[in-house]
Design goal:
Helix content of chain A: 25-40%
Low-confidence stretches of chain B: none
Bound molecules: adenosine-5'-diphosphate, magnesium ion
Strand content of chain B: under 5%
Number of strands of chain B: 0
Largest interface: A-B, 34 and 26 residues
Order of helices and strands of chain A: EEEHEEHEHHHEHEHEEHEEEHEH
Oligomer: heterodimer
Mean pLDDT of chain B: 90
Mean pLDDT of chain A: 93
Number of helices of chain A: 10
Number of domains of chain A: 2
Shape of chain B: globular
Order of helices and strands of chain B: HHHHHHHHHHHH
CATH topology of the largest domain in chain A: Rossmann fold
Strand content of chain A: 25-35%
CATH superfamily of the largest domain in chain A: P-loop containing nucleotide triphosphate hydrolases
Strand order of the largest sheet of chain A: 6-7-8-3-9-10
Structural class of chain B: mainly alpha
Radius of gyration of chain A: 21 Å
Chain lengths: ~280, ~240
């Protein structure tokens, strides 16, 4: 369980990246969603003891991230957004080194690394130097580390960015099977929607909403999204289109006018709240 | 202390990476050799023992100082320090992993120096053991300084200039290639803030080419402890 109490971060240059967030995360998989610069990375880095909060605090399974750092670190994995593997050693060795850093014995590290590489689809490239593999494959090494760790709490900052659709499915099913609680950030709404138990929506350093996908989508239940080239009453500008929400049974008439109808996603919750995710 | 991590890291950072970076190995080995050659030519071979005594210390120093570049690379380019923080790897484990990794880069140079020393009858069993001890201490103190430097900048590019500069200051200006007795006492003590200086003075004493000054051993050990504590204390671990 992760509990944040009015956690804040103001960077040295005055940027208020996280403006005071309080929440409890206790579901198996939580997705943090929000557009670029919303504060997702800053929040995750604070929770996983990589970055000191300006004020407020949080606890992970009862261990305070400031006072009880070592206890948090021993039971937590955190994969940074921009992490790179060590290029001159193999994929396999990258995993093993990490598991040694976590204090796992040599034999155990080897077995766990092998299992994770098979699960996540990097078994065939295990003996390649990490410098010689694709960006998506590099990402997978780190997801592999996280699931092989057996840690109680796992933070993944954009684990699937840059992955092809098939790899994303592999990564997600591995994440679902991980032993501990998982908190991740993602850009892909459909992913967050189909795979997380809980969603934390953030914008400009603040929490917009939190809840299960079903709860969050409730206000737009039985509705559809209409994308139109011309402005209508109640429509919201998104890029160069106008978006409005209508009951499903009313959608027909819009189709006749050449508008595009789309099912409701979490994107629409952002739009409804006045956050333009696509801008 | 996580010995498994320390030694795996050292192994991956040294032996495993030498094939990809053998030019660095050659350059760290050859730089003091070049100076050795210059000293040999300029002094008609007379000052060669001084250059041999100091060269091994200069080599150790440059390998230790260049650790700053490695650490900065791991921090800024790979973002690996963030990953390590959340594994309960301590700063001390990290530092020791780096020091043992660095040692391997200096190894070929050590062998050449020690063979030359033996050939010139400059070493006996006792001074040999003491030399290894001094090398170890210098590696710890210079790596600790490197640790500290690596946290001072915002990108790894800035670190390269800084380490090159420090490496020059710490390997050429101290009495690594000339007799320490040539230096006025105040300047000798001033230069002693670089661990290279007391180490070189001790080596000259051990080689029997200048009077032994045991006070330098105390200076070396005390400042190594200070640098180590400062290095561990000052390295950026959790960001602020
Ligand atoms: N080290 C830093 N110094 C100053 N500002 C930063 C720093 N890191 C991030 N920011 C700013 O903080 C805000 C939140 O960034 P971030 O947490 O990375 O967002 P996200 O991960 O949601 O894209 C952005 O406006 C970003 O520019
Ligand atoms: Mg981010």
């Amino acid at each position: 369980m992760i509990e944040a109490k009015n956690i804040k971060k103001t960077y040295k240059d005055g940027t208020q990246a996280v403006k005071g967030m309080s929440f409890v995360l206790d579901k198996k998989v939580t997705s943090i969603i929000g557009h670029n610069g919303a504060g997702k990375t800053t929040l995750i880095r604070m929770l996983s003891t990589q970055l000191l909060p300006t004020s407020g605090t949080a606890s992970i399974n009862g261990h305070d991230i400031i006072k009880d750092v070592m206890a948090v670190r021993k039971t937590t994995v955190s994969i940074p957004q921009e992490i790179n593997p060590i290029g001159w050693i193999t994929v396999f060795d990258n995993l093993r080194l990490y598991l040694h850093a976590r204090g796992l014995p040599i034999k155990e590290s080897k077995l766990r690394a092998e299992k994770a590489m098979k699960e996540i689809g990097i078994w065939d490239i295990r003996n390649k130097h990490a410098a010689d593999i694709s960006g998506g494959q590099k990402r997978k090494i780190f997801v592999g580390m996280a699931i092989a760790s057996g840690a109680d709490t796992i933070f993944l900052d954009e684990p699937t960015t840059g992955l092809d659709p098939f790899s994303r499915i592999q990564v997600w099913s591995a994440i679902r099977k991980a032993k501990g609680q998982v908190v991740l950030t993602t850009h892909y709404m459909e992913e967050a929607q189909s795979l997380s138990d809980d969603v934390l929506m953030v914008d400009k350093g603040k929490i917009l909403s939190k809840g299960s996908v079903r709860q969050l989508l409730k206000p737009l239940e039985k509705m559809v999204r209409v994308e139109s080239m011309k402005k209508r009453s109640n429509s919201i500008p998104v890029g160069n289109t106008w978006v409005s929400y209508v009951k499903r049974e009313e959608a027909e008439s819009f189709v006749m006018e050449g508008d595009i109808i789309k099912p409701i996603t979490l994107d629409d919750i952002f739009i409804k709240k006045g956050v333009n995710l696509e801008s | 202390m996580n010995l498994r991590y320390i030694f795996t890291n050292a192994y991956y950072r040294s032996l495993k990476s030498i094939r990809d970076n053998y030019l660095f190995l050659i350059s760290t080995t050859l730089t003091p050799m070049t100076l050795l050659f210059v000293v040999w030519i300029l002094s008609n071979g007379k000052d060669l023992p001084f250059a041999l005594a100091g060269g091994i210390i200069a080599l150790t120093t440059s390998v230790g100082i260049f650790e700053a570049g490695n650490i900065a690379f791991f921090r800024f380019d790979l973002r690996y320090v963030d990953l390590l923080i959340t594994t309960a790897t301590t700063k001390m484990d990290f530092l020791l992993g780096e020091i043992f990794g660095a040692l391997a880069w200096a190894f070929p140079g050590f062998i050449i120096y020690l063979l030359l020393d033996l050939y010139m009858h400059l070493l006996n069993p006792i001074s040999f053991v003491l030399t290894l001890f001094i090398i170890g201490i210098v590696l710890i103190s210079t790596s600790s300084i490197a640790f500290w430097i690596s946290g001072l900048t915002k990108t790894s590019r800035n670190v390269w200039g800084l380490t090159s500069l420090l490496s020059i200051f710490m390997t050429i200006i101290p009495p690594t290639f000339y007799s320490y007795t040539l230096l006025p006492k105040p300047i000798l003590y001033l230069l002693s803030i670089f661990p290279t200086t007391p180490a070189a003075v001790l080596e000259q004493g051990l080689f029997g080419i200048a009077p032994m000054d045991w006070s330098m051993l105390a200076i070396l050990i005390i400042e190594t402890i200070v640098y180590l504590v400062l290095g561990i204390y000052l390295i950026k671990w959790r960001d602020e």
